[in-house]
Amino acid sequence: MFRLDLKAHTNIAFAYFFLAAGLGILLRLFYVTPIAANYKYIIHAHSHTALLGWVYLALTGIIYRLLFQTTKLPKKYLYIFLVTNISLLGMLFSFPFQGYAVVSIIFSTLFLFCSYFYTGFILRNTPDEHRHTQYFKLIKAALWYMVFSSIGPWALGAIMSTLGKASIWYKLSIYFYLHFQYNAWFLLGILGIVFYLFQKLKLTFAPSEFKRFFYLLNFGVILSFFLSTYWTNPPIVFHFLGGLGVILLLLAFYQLFAFILRNKYQLKAGLSSFNYQILKITGILLVGKIFMQSLTAIPFFADLAFENLDFVIGYLHWVFLGFVSLALFGFLNWLKLIRLPKKAFYLYLSGFLISEMLIFYKGFVLWLGLPFFSSYFLILVLVSALIPIAVGWIIGLNFRKNK
User: Fold this and answer.
1) Which residue, 49, 162, 190, 267, could crosslink 53 as a Cys pair with Cβ 3.0–4.6 Å?
2) What keywords appear on the UniProt entry (predicted)?
3) Is 164 left (phi over 0), alpha (psi -120 to 50) or beta?
């Protein structure tokens, strides 16, 4: 009889990742050969499956494992998980055919309620031994940011029915959602796992030091949202708030990386060489994320990003396929929720890095008016195909192992 535990939970998350990556290949094939599908509808299916199928399920599964110290799932959690998957499958099979319409909106709304129930489950049932730890404070903040981000989708319906898609509020509501997903829920959730790792390895982040880091991080996350408003030519105070948010984030991450560098030998000794390597690569990608986000505090680069879609896509993929996904790979492997083959990991990393170079290359070509080679889109498809191949490799290996 099939028994659903966190390992199966993780394999299902990877299955969504595989599907999202496949949809990503389909999107790039639009530029190579005629495709009998609606491009925008496929984008909706791709993004929702990637963010809500892969990242949400993987991250929530890790959080459950940290706080409850078990891979078994109680009935309440199982019900939430099953309904969450109904909502995900509903979005997967409705978005490609109708985009944002009645059916897809129903399933999207159902997912939001599932995320609220998950948050309530965690906050109500977390054992007391975790509640006053540094990692739980970060995880709790991450969950509240996830809930807070949903203001964006809720606002979309009212905006579309009253002001229409041409309104600046339509884009702002989407940017609000994406900011508090990428830069708050995902980021603080991953940092919570990092601080759990610190505690397991007996690395002491002093209470006063953590308090300063926590406040710098949270105020930075909130204020840096104003970076997403620069394209509207807002009052100068918005520029000041966005710039202040970047400064606070830089101070927070300077403090974090200084701590990591002081304790790098203990980290290296406490992890396998492979997991330590993943942690290092993830840290480098996080630095890149912070650098690119900080650049948008300068109006010239903010305008450039708004006008050049390739830079935006490159940044979003840098965060999603790079920093977030590699961090999840490493933590899932460390917690033994998956077995991560080194060859599959480096195949994935190669596909990610080369595709990122190609995306940013196109952005620079369009910006600077440089020559553009004709086989670009075909090469991008072939390189990007390494990602679903690697993810499929990981799924196959773990399915055989679990069976």
Assistant:
1) 49
2) Membrane, Transmembrane, Transmembrane helix
3) left
- Tokens representing residue 198 in the block: 């610190």
Of the candidates 344, 354, 349, the residue with the CA atom closest to the CA atom of residue 381: 354
Task: Say how many domains are in the chain.
Answer: 1
Comparing CA positions, the residue from 273, 293, 296 lying closest to residue 285 is 293
> Residue 305's pLDDT band (boundaries 50, 70, 90)?
confident
Across 288-324, b (16+ Cβ under 10 Å) vs e yields bbbebbbbbbeeeebeebbebebbeebbbbbbbbbbb
pLDDT at 372: 84
Q: Give the model confidence (pLDDT) of 254-272 as tens digits.
A: 999 999 999 999 999 999 9
Residue 256 included in any domain: no
Q: Mind listing the pLDDT tens digit for each residue in 307-341?
A: 899 999 999 999 999 999 999 999 999 999 999 99
Q: Is residue 111 in some structural domain? A: yes
At residue 235, does pLDDT exceed 80? yes
Range of the domain at 86: 1-126
Task: Report CA dihedral (100, 103, 108, 110) to the nearest 10 degrees.
Answer: 160
Question: Within a domain: residue 191?
Answer: no
Give percent helix, percent strand, percent coil of the chain, each to the nearest 5. 85, 0, 15
Determine the 3-state secondary structure of 190 from DSSP: helix
Nearest 5°: the CA angle 40, 101, 89 is 80
The encoded tokens of residue 329 equal 């790979």
Residues shown for the chain: 403
Cβ pair 312, 360 in contact under 8 A:
no
- State which amino acid sits at residue 149: S
Residue 11 has pLDDT above 80, yes or no: yes
